[in-house]
Amino acid sequence: MSSADVAAVVAELSAGPKSIIDAKIGKIYQPTNEEIRINLYVFHKGRDNLVVEAGKRIHLSKYIRPSPKLPQAFPMLLRKYIMGGRIVSIEQHDFDRIVKIGIERGGIRSTLIVELFARGNVLIVDSENRIILPMNPVTLKDRRLRSGEIYELPEAQLNPLEARVSDLMEAFSRSTADIVRTIATKFNLGGVLAEEVCARAGIDKSKPSKEATEEDASRLCNAMHELFSPLLRAKTESGVGAGIPELRPQHVKKEINGKLETFDVLPFDLIHYSGYEKEYFDSFNTALDEFFGKKALEQVEEVKEAQKKEKTLGVYEIRLLQQEESLKKFEKEIEKNNILAETIYANYQLIEELFSVLNGARAKGYSWDEIRSILKQAKKTVPAAQKITNIDPRIGTITVDLDGKSVNLDIRKTVPQNAQEYYEKVKKFNKKKEGVLKAIEDTKKAMEKKAVAKAAKAGRKLQASRKKHWYDRFRWFVSSDGFLVVGGRDADTNEEIFKKYLEKRDLVFHTQAPGAPLTIIKTGGKEVPESTLREAAQFAVSYSSLWKAGHFSGDCYLVKAEQVTKTPESGEYLRKGAFVIRGERNYFKDVPLGVAIGLELKEGETRVIGGPASAVRKHGDYILEIIPGSFNQNDISKKIYRIYVNELNDPRFVKQIASPDQIAMMIPPGESDLKSQKPEGRERELSPEKNTKPSK
């Protein structure tokens, strides 16, 4: 949630139909580590639930996550102090992402403070602003959020609701960034609202702050006041009527993976999103609940489904899943600790200076509290002091922010010794990784052995029969009309196809974007139907750089073989894999990207095939469609291989005709995902039917 979102939800909760002022507090639950739910009885309205998720959201909700069977300490303590009390106030602190909920019980006043920035926190403080208990006890370089400490607010940002031209000019004079970044950070706006202010003011957002004039500042100031005017008016609303009419709570939607989905929630209209589809709501609380609450409940259901699915898995499958999760964890730790060790060496001089200052102060008898106080005062003048984010006096370590990474350092050790500590962790996790890799291999062997036994028991007899073809080392497919379509894998194979296999009677496809296969249809002198042309066009765009870029459609063109030449214009040079096209081109626009993988199981030819889905369906079984996604070529190939092993229950046979390496040959370069985890089609019995021979 942005500061504007917080202002809007607080305005609704403090007045109008969604007001929780004078609501009685019931039980408090903690469904997850960062979320609490407060049961409320709202006068004249009935029961409701206030959901607070540290660092993320606060709103009334009808989407309730199940409560844990054993309540945690934090909600139990909240019950002790505020259950049965009444909410007497709710306010936002100075247009920051901090909400204060005033509660009174038996004449005793306490405040529930919700922090919605960074990792966030939820705290309860007494009437003297002393922390009774925080959800997440933390010690930062300038704040201690622990029981018994006086609650200190974070360093204040400029309030855009009260911004003056002089405030903007001062912020610009001190900034080295452009205008949009300066107002986003200094005025607590965030990226989207900062861009909106620039757009309304008619100011170039990328203009350096140092070049900003008073006229620019005046226009930006007016744009801020105009943008947030609904929130300014909301503060003066009496709370009578149908809510805050100036607000326009909404979901902003766009097409994601072919489906219209919500990607942002706003309390009012933005010019920035004028071209997007929107869904409006009667209140901002409802909009937030449909955006955050519904999604949170869906995640719970997904976890339940995963747990249910896990129960149907065999012992080996469950073991393998656990081992693969451990492997990912160890690899992340290895990468993280290597980076931290290298970061220490990259900041060698800075760390040495810090150690020298801190060890010198300790030698002079300064306590850790005194050192912390000195550093807090010096952080604006001493650059090195700004790097320290935490001090742990119990073990003599400091936490330092180096190149955006949080590094723990022991001041009693040298810089190389601190780096070595991280390298030792790398060694430890490498040993664990080796162990889990061996365990995974053992589990896979056991699974294969079990699968072979199961297949033998079922009396299945699948025989691999593979022929060698000249086009095997290129990209290829047989169209649904029986025409062979071949494409290069890189510049070298594009050259080879052009020089050795392109005939005058062939047709050639290529994309508008660079980095695509030289795709040829081997016509054999026959007329090529429109369906094959469409499939060849999809093949050309799908195996091009468009896939790696994450596009879902692209343009390509068709020419005759005689139009393709390696002879450049006078004075020009052609690099390897490049060609000159002369003459008219026949364009295919907005061709959808998409590839399918299948198994061709016919007598005399058992192999993995790939290409456009319509062509693969014509010649194969166990069809899996692939779209641009998030898995690399190696991972998606292994995933498909495992699916085929599970479907055919014959690992040896699958490995012979569709090993991960063979499947990878059919996968476009870049990241991909499966449209469905379940293959289409049914298993065919191997019969002596004739294979459809491609036209060559």
Write structural notes for this entry.
It comes from Methanosarcina thermophila (strain ATCC 43570 / DSM 1825 / OCM 12 / VKM B-1830 / TM-1). Probably part of the ribosome quality control system (RQC). May mediate the addition of alanine residues (Ala tailing) to incompletely synthesized nascent chains from stalled ribosomes, leading to their degradation. The protein is α+β, with helices and mostly antiparallel strands and 696 residues long. Helices cover 39% and strands 24% of the residues. A hairpin with a 5-residue loop joins strand 5 (86-92) and strand 6. The longest helix is centred in the middle third of the chain and has 44 residues, at 415-458. The two termini are 61 Å apart.
For the structure shown, list the relevant keywords:
globular; Helicase, Ruva Protein, domain 3; single chain; ibrinogen binding protein from staphylococcus aureus fold; about 700 residues; alpha+beta; 5 domains; six-stranded antiparallel sheet
